[in-house]
Design goal:
Length: 428
């Protein structure tokens, strides 16, 4: 910046030298020479500052001395105190203050030298110095403005520096607060994970021990029969024994399979799903499981956009809800034909899918625990208690929600809410 400032001043002085030559010609060569020397001096100062050979703090003082020398020479050559250029002496402290606003010494030094130059000009003109006292007073006052301006600039710079430091401190505190918040969230998530793992471990132990107990009992019975050299007296009893053992093993296998899906960190490679197609496929598969229990009414509006859930998981969630609804109606007493409603609606911000049934509804004491791992109201061997937990997990991972409620007219309603795929074309 200082190099650019010196260059601009040098250019202006050079233009002044050119204008002086055009106006006065060769009649006043001394003044033209002083202007040219002044211009070249500023150009050299700019080069020295730009290359780093001259410290920035020293450039202002040298610029003031050069300017004072040049102005004093021109004023003396054109009449001393009566010269039309006499008033330009007062510009020197202001010029130095402009070059070195962050330092007071150069401006103060140039002000003192300027006052000495005024006294010297009166002395060289053989006029009493007391005649120059008004000029000294006025010039000193104007030069003091340069000192005041530099002081004001330094105060502004200091205030700006403090403000910047305060901003940096606030940003650092904000960053530290954010780091603490993230660390607290990480610790909380870890605690929740450990708590969930504890619940899972307890649930697994309970769920596996039940089928494992009668599998072990059956195997012990068979071992006793074989090692004792005895043959089972009833072949049907043996078949029942093998069937119970097989069901127990399948039960354990189902629990392990559900746990594997539950603990999987990522979803499938599919990124988006088409709700309309998923609803139709889930209905088709559900009717295969329901036999002649009833029907599933389907309502799919036109222009239903895609959602942020893979198609296979979307079908799995809907199929699980439909089968649960059918089993709930099947358990109703007195028996009734199942009427299950599968409908969808959408707004610009969400897709809403509802599964309603005409079953007995969800008991009040069951509703709060419906999505807990291993919680089930089905008969032993009918479910692992992870179906609804997996459904909610799939949906929650993509920012959706799955809730359950009882209908005022009877039966249960499950509400699936998903986020539309950004910039996706509508699909039915």
């Amino acid at each position: 910046m200082k190099r650019k400032l010196f260059s601009v001043c040098a250019g202006m002085l050079f233009l002044g030298w050119v204008g002086h030559g055009l106006f006065f010609g060769r009649s006043r060569p001394f003044e033209g020479g002083v202007l040219l020397t002044w211009s070249l001096s500023f150009l050299v100062l700019g080069l020295l500052v730009g290359t780093g050979r001259l410290p920035a703090w020293a450039s202002g003082g040298l610029a003031g001395l050069v300017s004072l020398g040049a102005v004093t020479a021109i004023v003396h050559a054109t009449g001393g105190p009566t010269s039309p250029y006499f008033v330009t002496l007062v510009c020197t402290p202001l010029l130095v203050a402009m070059f070195t606003p962050d330092a007071r010494a150069p401006t103060l030094g140039s002000l003192g030298v300027m006052l000495l130059a005024v006294a010297l000009l009166y002395h060289l003109a053989e006029r009493p110095v007391r005649e120059g006292l008004p000029s000294l007073f006025i010039f000193g006052g104007i030069g003091g403005l340069g000192l005041y301006g530099g002081k004001t600039y330094r105060r502004l710079r200091e205030s700006e520096r403090h403000a910047q430091e305060d901003r940096l401190l606030a940003l650092e505190q904000l960053a530290e607060s954010e780091r603490r918040r993230l660390r607290a969230e990480t610790e909380r998530a870890e605690m929740e994970r450990r708590l969930l793992m504890g619940q899972l471990a307890t649930g697994v132990a309970h769920e596996v021990n039940n089928p494992l107990a009668f599998v072990k009992s059956n195997l012990n019975y068979l071992e006793q029969q074989l090692t004792g050299g005895q043959q089972p007296s009833d072949i049907e009893e043996l078949r029942e024994l093998l069937d119970e053992t097989r069901q127990g093993v399948l039960r354990i296998q189902r629990i392990v399979t559900d746990l594997r899906y539950f603990s999987r960190d990522g979803l499938s490679q599919e990124e988006w799903g088409a709700p309309g197609e998923a609803m139709q496929e889930a209905r088709r598969q559900a009717l295969g499981h329901m036999a002649r229990l009833g029907d599933v009414a389907l309502e799919v509006p036109d222009g239903l956009p895609r959602v942020r859930l893979g198609q296979s998981h979307l079908i799995q969630v809907l199929l699980n809800l439909l089968i649960n609804a059918a089993e709930a109606v099947e358990s109703s007493r007195p028996a009734r034909p199942a009427r299950i409603q599968l409908r969808a609606s959408h707004t610009p911000s969400e897709i809403r899918v509802e599964v309603e049934d005409n079953g007995p509804g969800i008991p009040a004491e069951v509703l709060p625990r419906l999505f807990e791992p291993f919680f089930t109201t089905k008969a032993p061997g009918k479910g692992s208690g992870l179906g609804l937990t997996l459904c909610r997990e799939y949906v929650a991972r993509v920012g959706g929600s799955l809730t359950a409620e009882n209908r005022p007219e009877g039966g249960a309603r499950f509400v699936l809410t998903l986020t539309p795929a950004a910039a996706a074309s509508p699909r039915s």
